[in-house]
Amino acid sequence: MKSIIRTNRAGVFFGEIEKQENTPAGVIVxxxxxxxxxxxxxxxxxxxxxxxxxxxxxxxxxxAPVASITVRAFIEQTWxxxxxxxxxQLAGHYGIKIER
Length: 100
Description:
The chain is an alpha+beta fold. Helix content is 15%, strand content 42%. It has one domain (3-91).
């Protein structure tokens, strides 16, 4: 399932959690089909983005996806289960097709 994942220091990501591990240093997650959410406009929160998308997609910075990334200090996950338009905005920002 597609998710928006917030970390303590590494930022915010869009993708699918492939692996999650609890360690003394914090929760480590591996995210596949991952795109960093570097900057957005037109959504008050990540929860709103997950459900409704962003109002100004052309002003957002959603860099190209990577096959997978492993990040530490996972603190929040918002399931991307409701907003089909929101998924299209993130997944297809650079013409990349990510299936739901």
